[in-house]
Fold this protein.
Amino acid sequence: MSFLKVEDLYLYYRTRMGTLQAVDGVSFSMKKAESLALIGESGCGKSSLAKCLMRLLPRNVELFKGHIYLDGLDLMELNDEEFRKTIRWQRISMVPQAALNSLNPVVKVGEQVAEPLLIHKSVDKKEALEKVRELFSLVGIPQAFMDRYPFELSGGMRQRVIIAMALIMNPEIVILDEPTSALDVLIQASIMNMLKRIKRESNLTFILITHDVSISSELADKVAVMYGGQIVELNDAESFYKSPLHPYSQKLMASVPSLREDKQPEYIPGAPVSLINPPKGCRFADRCPFRIEECSEEPPLVSLKDGNYVRCWLYAR
Amino acid sequence: MTEDRILLSLRDLRKWYSIRKGIFGKTVYVKALDGVSFDLRRGEAISLVGESGCGKTTLGRTILGLEEPTSGKIIFDGREIVNSDKKLMKWYRRQTGFVQQDPFGALPPFMTVKRILEEPMIINKVDKRERRERIYKALTEVRLTPVEDFLNKYPHMLSGGQQQRVVIARAMILNPKLIIADEPVSMLDASVRIEILTLLKKLQKLHDISIIYITHDLSTTRYFSEWIFVMYAGKIVEKAPVKELLKNPLHPYSKALLAAIPDPDARNRFIIRELPPGEPPSLIDPPKGCRFHPRCVHKIKGLCDEKEPPEIEYERDHLVSCWLYARER
């Protein structure tokens, strides 16, 4: 039984140039305590998909439909008020992208993290701060930092504070949108270490959004590759990192410069497909080295084991 | 390798920024660069690797003459650059090109691509016909073709990768001998990064240019430079040919940097990486002795925390500033 199941999800934006199809028929499912990495280039719809799950939508939404089942409950049936009160931050929370400077500069970080507890749960301040203290030791922030202001903290420490904020309401699913992209390699590695420990010790379900294939392998049990608003491949980490199936996944993998192997990284020729009036058929066809005649038609979802799939004509025989 | 292949030499270069603490407080210094020396040969590329705040950007800016060094020497093509006269400085600026991190911020938004590329040539009094020729040549070389499609575009009409190509074309337009590229691809998508770096490498070979490639990303260095220099807290701690450093890093800090970078592998998720504790030191009051000693697992008490390590030639061309490799302590 899947814990999170997304079915035929669509999110279109209205823009001056026309309808932008940011999320276009996305389906995937996850088990509890499983981690999914969502990878792809900028503008492929990864962050928009996260916005759907959190229902943090901008004003210019043209179409938002599909099903998001959380433990059997269809979240799309809830109205905004119900969603706000019971789901957002309480069951599904998020570490937004580039959030390092989004902390309130005039509130001590310990109190900032405690705030949602004081508002949503009937706990007193002492209890709330106690919970924050526990959380700080979990994410690796020294206790003394409770009373500090954001400007007194390094980038790595501020990112840990933001991760603590996402965890404070005991959510079941945490979406991490590029959690380490602005950080130095050693700090990046220590944050990934911390996330791995949390993953090992709790049964949190993580969705990691990143454009960095190497970083994705630090957490992912399962990988979803997005291109042009669609998931083109959903696969287990073991199979994916060894031999990705979709031509786009293969190209993405070949573009990763390796530290340890002597292989020349390649780039993907051409530019990502526009999400406004995308071409009919396979969206990667224009850049694909294996293009065949069928590719001008919408490619089928070819099933692999465990509900995984690849969206490509090459495997459709 | 003969001496005349050397294009740029730095000798004990220091850049200290003064800051005053409190109204009556005494002046203290941020020692962003503290004794950097190296030689760069013609047609070769150095990757300067280190974390934010280690002084790598300051080093780039000081070499370009955008910052006045506190002390030390910069010798370019046999000529002393620090404190030189205006005429020599103007010549020097023509010999160097700069590619910044944020291409959009580097391009004036109100100028067309043509105008952006023309500007340095107008300043340096290149005649009109030659200006036109050079613009065509430069845009073709950075593969913004057909050239006519791009000449009259403004920066905001281009993608990030295209903007960075314009920045590279501008850096190349006066036929410099040295290019300093400060994190040229960190704002770009992974697949575009490789494209831009491949382009830089090609231009380096084509025109026999030297490049200093400043980056925090060790994984891209392998294919785009001959040398890696690792910087920590204002000093270069290790210098080696790329493959040698990646295969056999000597300095504990270089080792840590390498170990922190994953290659895509499904097993990564089960591995907790070993990392040095703590964070880089303040450059106002850096630790005595070796600057890495408070975070180093191999530190030798009474030595590493007392005396600054010398630069030791471990092998030919592989230099490391670490007491662990000293024959005499």
